[in-house]
TrEMBL record:
Source species taxonomy: Bacteria, Pseudomonadati, Pseudomonadota, Alphaproteobacteria, Rhodospirillales
Keywords per UniProt: Disulfide bond, FAD, Flavoprotein, Oxidoreductase, Redox-active center
Gene3D superfamilies (alphabetical): 3.30.390.30, FAD/NAD(P)-binding domain
Name by which UniProt lists this protein: FAD-dependent oxidoreductase
Pfam family, one: Pyr_redox_2
Region (Disordered): 457-498
Length: 498
């Protein structure tokens, strides 16, 4: 360790990764300082997963109210108060921020408000102060990347979208990634007329093609207008109205779209601005993230980095796991590499989407012809009574040679809660035969994953890059219901919520 240093560890950023690392290191007796330029809790608490999840829960009641009558309720016309939801959301953010600040204090961590900047491999400047430690951890997260368009300052990012004074009548959402798609669904459920403009042919490039096509169809059925294969050219302001000029698939000009709100959800970049990395020689990766090894150590021995700033996997559980592994490695004498393998993902879309492991395209790229898929579109109990299609879909991607399940994909109510258990199964190397031998919980959507019909040899349920309509899954009945399962297996009729 370093004689005369102010601390054993200085952390830049009190978000998911920074907080976890600071608390763990303090717990093992280290003198820790955390520097935070914004709110304690970082993106998750103030402008990320937490506020987004609260808005998504709020938006989810719209379909509940609409369905309630079919189940005997006479609820009358439902009213919605955006300001009240904002106030409740803000109160919860403050509660979690206060709890995190208190946890730091109780652990003996020194919290310093301000923007930190490296001034050497073991020194950080905050305002007028220079602090030293033998180990520095950069956990400064990521920030939205606005597209480079004329008039892009008329657009808001997800940060402002989580804090709108009022809901717009119409919104144009730019981007086809997780953020854009989640916000399109949330706004749509709250009654906003939503147009989502994406360069690809369906939302969520990189996800399984059936999941993408299924979600796109379900979003359109709920009234979201998807403008596929289009690129925004410019945003013009006309009073309270924004006009987004577009180029079509061939680069030709297309009809513009207009709305009071334009949300640019066109990606995020690692937040390394003003960090003084050049003074230390810390190497960056191709997209500007801090390059680290499997233990989260940068190219400079004393400087480590975790979370979004490393541009590995931009998810809260990844930042937490990296922080824990960092503390074990740097302070506990137990080198621990982080596995970014088989990480489950859940999106607050309508219907909810969740997956773990490989999508069909990726599996075929890695395993060639030795991949088979099993897909069903179970009808939920709710849609049986309301008559309104849920768009539910379950799919397994399987390595035929070893019968190993490579990917589990779910679209439908409760998808986020379902996927965690299946992530454990995939970590254990579960086979399709083991899935089939496991009895499900009846009647749930998860059960449908355990009663999937055998794959038809050579039949790919998925689609190419241009995503034509998905063929009827093997074993599907003509009306899209899952075919009757073999005897002695419960009928895989999904319940709305188990
Ligand atoms: C809208 C949105 C929704 C999301 N939804 C989900 C979700 O549902 N599930 C999920 O797993 N992930 C979600 N994410 C991603 C998740 O929030 C991030 O992966 C996670 O917060 C990363 O943690 P981190 O510690 O790297 O950074 P952050 O949590 O962003 O923390 C970084 C902190 O560093 C501070 N900082 C920056 N620069 C400095 C500096 N120079 N000095 C001092 N402090 C500094 C910032 O103010 C911030 O508080 C979402 C993100 C967004 C934006
Ligand atoms: N629920 C969750 O777990 C959750 C939710 C949201 C985000 N995230 C995380 O955050 C990460 C970032 O998500 P994201 O949606 O911000 O980014 P992304 O990079 O996944 O998607 C960005 C989208 O914007 C489009 N785009 C980029 N530049 C553009 C331009 N100039 N014009 C038009 N379109 C453009 C891209 O084609 C893409 O569709 C995700 O990979 C995920 O790890 C997680």
């Amino acid at each position: 360790m370093m004689a005369g240093a102010d601390f054993d560890l200085i952390v830049l950023g009190a978000g998911a990764g920074g907080l976890r690392a600071a608390l763990l290191a303090a717990d093992s007796g280290r003198r820790v300082a955390v520097i935070e330029s914004g709110r304690v809790g970082g993106a998750r608490v103030a402008r990320g997963g937490l506020p987004k999840a609260l808005l998504a829960i709020g938006a989810g009641f719209a379909e509940d109210f609409a369905a309630a009558e079919a189940f005997g309720w006479q609820a009358g016309a439902a009213g919605f108060d955006w300001a009240r939801l904002m106030a409740a959301k803000n109160a919860e953010i403050t509660r979690q921020e206060t709890a995190a600040t208190l946890a730091l204090r109780e652990a003996g961590v020194t919290l310093i408000e301000g923007r930190g900047r490296l001034s050497g491999p073991r020194a950080v400047v905050v305002g007028e102060r220079v602090l030293t430690a033998p180990v520095l951890l950069i956990a400064t997260g990521s920030r939205p990347a606005l597209p480079d368009l004329p008039g892009c300052d008329h657009a808001v990012t997800t940060t402002e979208a989580l804090d709108l004074m009022q809901l717009p009548r119409r919104a144009v959402v730019l981007g086809g990634g997780p953020h854009a798609t989640e916000f399109a669904c949330i706004f749509n459920a709250l009654g906003v007329e939503v147009t989502q403009v994406m360069r690809a042919q369906a939302p969520l490039p990189g996800f399984d093609p059936d999941l993408r096509a299924g979600l796109a169809a379900a979003m359109e059925a709920r009234g979201v207008r998807l403008v596929r294969g289009h690129q925004p050219l410019a945003i013009e302001r006309d009073g309270a109205l924004n006009r987004v000029l577009l180029a079509g698939p061939g680069g030709d000009k297309a009809a513009p779209v207009e709305a009071e709100l334009v949300l640019a959800a066109t990606g995020r970049v690692p937040d390394t601005a003003g960090l003084g990395l050049e003074t230390t020689g810390v190497a960056l990766g191709p997209r500007g993230g801090i390059a680290v090894d499997a233990y989260s150590r940068s190219s400079v021995e004393s400087i480590w980095a975790v979370g979004d700033v490393t541009d590995r996997l931009r998810l809260t559980p990844a930042a937490l796991a990296e922080a824990e592994a960092f503390v074990h490695t740097a302070f506990d004498g137990c080198p621990t590499a982080v596995e970014h393998h088989l990480v489950p993902i859940a999106l607050a879309t309508t219907p909810a989407l969740a997956c773990v492991g490989l999508g069909e395209d990726e599996a075929r790229r890695l395993y060639g012809g030795g991949v088979e898929t099993h897909l069903a579109r179970p009808r939920t109990l709710r849609e049986r009574l309301t008559g309104r299609e849920s768009g539910a879909l379950v799919k397994l991607v399987v390595d035929r040679d070893e019968d190993r399940v490579l990917g589990v994909h779910v679209l439908g109510p409760g998808a986020a809660e379902i996927i965690g258990g299946f992530a454990v199964a995939l970590q254990c190397g579960a086979t399709k035969a083991q899935f089939d031998a496991t009895l499900g919980v009846h009647p749930t959507l998860a059960e449908a994953l355990l009663t999937l019909p055998p794959a038809v040899p050579g039949a790919a349920s998925g689609s190419g890059p241009d995503l034509p309509p998905v063929a009827a899954p093997p074993g599907a009945a003509p009306d899209g219901e899952t075919a009757a399962p073999p005897p002695a297996v419960a009928e895989p009729i999904a319940a709305e919520r188990s």
